[in-house]
C-alpha cells in the first residue's frame, strides 16, 4: 500500500493494529495459549518510514509520550493506554532499533529473553535482520520502501 501523507500512514497503522488485536483475541480461545510477546519486524532502508509508522502506532495506542527512534539507546518502553489493547492483555509497547547492534546476542543486554517471553508486550523492532537469530519465525513482518520524498510503500 502506498502512502503519500501522514494521514494515510496513520490509517495504515490503525488497520495493522486491528489485525493484531483480532489475532490476539482469537488466540485467547486456542488450545495452546501464546505465552510470548507479539513481535513486529520493520524492514526497510533509512528514510523508508519505519519510525513514522511506529509513531503512528504509538498514537493509536494512546501513548502520550513523544516516540522517537531508539537508535542510540536501542530500546524504549511505553505503557499502552488504549483500553481495547489493555483488555486484550497488552500493557507495554516496546520500540527497538537494532541498527547499531553488531550481533544478535547484544539484545540480551536489554533483557531480550524476558521481554520477548512476556505476552503483555507488543514489540516493534527496526532492522530485525541484524538480530534474526533471536526472533521467532511467526512474527509479523512489515516492509517499507522509499519511493520518493512524498511516497512510501508499506506492505505486510
Description:
The structure is a single chain. By secondary structure, the protein is α/β, with parallel strands linked by helices. The chain is built from 4 helices and 7 strands, in the order E-H-E-H-E-H-E-H-E-E-E. The protein has helices at residues 6-28, 50-60, 83-87, 112-117, and strands at 2-3, 38-43, 75-79, 92-97, 121-126, 140-148, 151-155. A 7-stranded mixed β-sheet has the order 1-7-6-2-5-4-3. Helix 4 (112-117) links the parallel strand 4 (92-97) and strand 5 (121-126). The relative contact order is 0.24. The model has no long low-confidence stretch (mean pLDDT 92).
In short:
This protein has 156 residues and is α/β, with parallel strands linked by helices. Helices cover 29% and strands 25% of the residues. It has helices at residues 6-28, 50-60, 83-87, 112-117; strands at residues 2-3, 38-43, 75-79, 92-97, 121-126, 140-148, 151-155.
Amino acid at each position: 500500500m502506498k502512502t503519500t501523507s501522514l494521514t494515510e500512514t496513520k490509517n495504515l497503522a490503525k488497520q495493522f493494529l486491528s489485525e493484531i488485536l483480532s489475532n490476539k483475541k482469537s488466540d485467547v480461545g486456542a488450545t495452546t495459549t501464546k505465552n510470548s510477546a507479539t513481535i513486529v519486524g520493520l524492514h526497510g532502508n533509512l528514510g523508508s518510514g519505519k519510525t513514522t509508522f511506529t509513531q503512528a502506532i504509538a498514537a493509536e495506542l494512546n501513548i502520550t509520550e513523544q516516540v522517537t527512534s531508539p537508535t542510540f539507546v536501542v530500546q524504549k518502553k511505553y505503557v499502552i493506554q488504549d483500553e481495547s489493547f489493555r483488555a486484550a492483555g497488552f500493557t507495554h509497547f516496546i520500540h527497538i532499533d537494532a541498527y547499531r547492534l553488531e550481533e544478535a546476542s547484544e539484545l540480551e543486554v536489554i533483557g531480550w529473553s524476558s521481554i520477548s517471553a512476556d505476552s503483555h508486550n507488543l514489540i516493534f523492532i527496526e532492522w530485525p535482520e541484524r538480530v534474526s537469530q533471536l526472533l521467532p519465525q511467526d512474527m509479523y513482518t512489515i516492509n517499507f520502501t522509499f519511493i520518493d520524498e512524498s511516497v512510501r510503500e508499506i506492505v505486510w
